[in-house]
Model the fold of this input.
Amino acid sequence: MSGSETVIREVLEANGRLPVSALTLSDDDDLYQQGLTSHASVNVMLALEDAFDVEFPDVLLRRDTFKSVAAIRSALTSLGVDPESSDRVS
Amino acid sequence: MTSDVDEFRLALFEAGLLAPTSTAGVYHRSFAFEGIVRGVESFVSAAGQDAPRRQLYLSPLLDSSALAASGFLLSFPNLVGVLTSFTRPEQDLPELINRVESGGDWAEMLSPDGLALVGAACHPLYPSLAGSEVPEEGLLYQVQAVCHRHEPSDDPARMQSFSQHEFVFVGCEAGALAHRDMWLERGVQLLEQLGLSVETVPANDPFFGRVGKLMKASQRDKAAKFELVAPISSASPGAVTSGNFHGDHFGTAYDISLSGGGPAHSACIGFGLERITLALLHLHGLDIASWPAPVRSHLHLAL
Done:
């Protein structure tokens, strides 16, 4: 599991209010089908921004951006986050 | 330079249809204006007589705990209105008197009293169903409420106090979607009978702030909300009616379950009575006596 992925799962675990553990989900599991609500996805977004010191631009403020661990990783990579890095900024 | 919206607002004042107050977006209305509002209500309501529906004028006051439970507070914190009152002991009264007389901040002496103003007509309905079981084929309602949204504006299409007339379904998912789609089509037909040229467009609610953008995008991705738009206070079209599929949002929030198991889904279509009235005035003119006879007849305005 790459560094950023661990952080993504921790953020989901803490903010996603999922009925299942985010640590055991597969990369491509649909988080919305797993119970991620719109409000919880907003909390996840804010926590990811905090953890990786990035700001999601308007173009990424879409439902699809947060639909799976893989989708979140891909969005973060597009913002310059090194997928191998586990350094949390804060 | 005055805009079209400003011109229309001033023309409404001059014709005596609306009267301004000291607060943007808050108006008094003439009996003639209210007569059109009630005519639209009656016209729309008649279309809902095709099936047995529980019919309620819902109170414009809502238990403020419902604001949090429904998610309305977090999604639209800038739009809510919560009532306050003097709940302190009598010994604090001199301080209140002092502040009123000195022009001080007396509102600070008041505290939330547990009531909020209704933000959308169907919102008080769901708490009344809390913990209940509804049939798969659904419960049908026709409701109306005076709503408040805190959005001061000089555009008469954006009043701070307005009436929504809604047809609501609470039941299975397929039934909720079918209800919304049937009423969107019916809404187009009804509004066209009044002469309005309406268009059905995908829409989103005005979720607050930057994170609200995600909520808006999510709502659009799910094709949850459609609006019927027409020119209201200028040539630029605005929503006169909206059709909303809520999914199981309210069913989950209020523990409303389906008889076959799982949370209930819901949908509503809301006719904005003042916006439709304004759109008619914008289209047919401020001299109501000269409106087309069929329109006057549909609205039960004296011929």
Notes: The mean pLDDT of chain B is 95. Chain B is about 35% helix and 25% strand. The first strand of chain B starts at residue 18 and ends at 20. The two ends of chain B are 38 Å apart (CA to CA).
